[in-house]
Amino acid sequence: MQDKLMIKYIKKKNQKGMEILIDQYNGLITSVIRHHLGKLINYEEECVSDTLLAIWNNIDGFEKDKNSFKNWICAIAKYKAIDYKRKYLNKIETSTLDEQIYYIDENLLKIEIQEELNETLNFLPKEDKEIFRRYYLEDESIVDIANNKKLAISSVYSKLSRGKAKIRKSLLKDGGK
After folding, report:
1. For 46-74, what is the mean pLDDT?
2. pLDDT digit string (tens) for 121-165?
3. 63 burial class (0-12, 13-18, 19+ CB within 10 angstroms)?
4. pTM score
């Protein structure tokens, strides 16, 4: 019941909705981000703020029939954290912990991102994984993929659509993690 009220407030751009959201879900959002940011602890607070802003700006994209609000915000937090990893991958960051300096290995971050991607795409058949990678990661056009795979353009669109549905379903099972 409180989620409905919160969503209603946020959709009307009433700050009270964000206050309720922060009171109820800030711990969850922070833990999802902390889990996916890994060693980039310096960016945790900024990522949480960006996640809250994304929820505020994209609340109209929430569809209660397809997803619970809790899972929806967890997915936003997860992908914001992954975006932060990508964004800061080219910088080698240092952080002080117990007066020791730990250097974040750029290769380790690449491996973590690749593992996240593999885990996310793991629910797709081999051919669909390849289509996803080519379209979403390599920015290849639908036409080029269809020609290369000897598929109809509509088949490529269908595979992408069904793949997104499978990934969404798998994220819901995992509670957004």
Report:
1. 89
2. 887 888 888 898 888 777 889 999 999 999 999 999 998 888 888
3. exposed
4. 0.52
Residue 101 has a pLDDT of 42
Chain segment 11-39, per-residue pLDDT in tens? 999 999 899 899 999 999 999 998 888 77
Average pLDDT over residues 102-115: 64
How crowded is the C-beta side of 10, counted as CA atoms within 13 Å?
24
The DSSP result for the chain, as a single string, is -HHHHHHHHHHTT-HHHHHHHHHHHHHHHHHHHHHHHTT-GGGHHHHHHHHHHHHHHHGGG--TTTS-HHHHHHHHHHHHHHHHHHHTTTSPPEEEETTEEEEPPHHHHHHHHHHHHHHHHTTS-HHHHHHHIIIIIS---HHHHHHHHT--HHHHHHHHHHHHHHHHHHHHHTTT-
Contacts of 124 (CB under 8 A, 6+ apart): 132, 163, 166, 167
Amino acid letter, 78: K
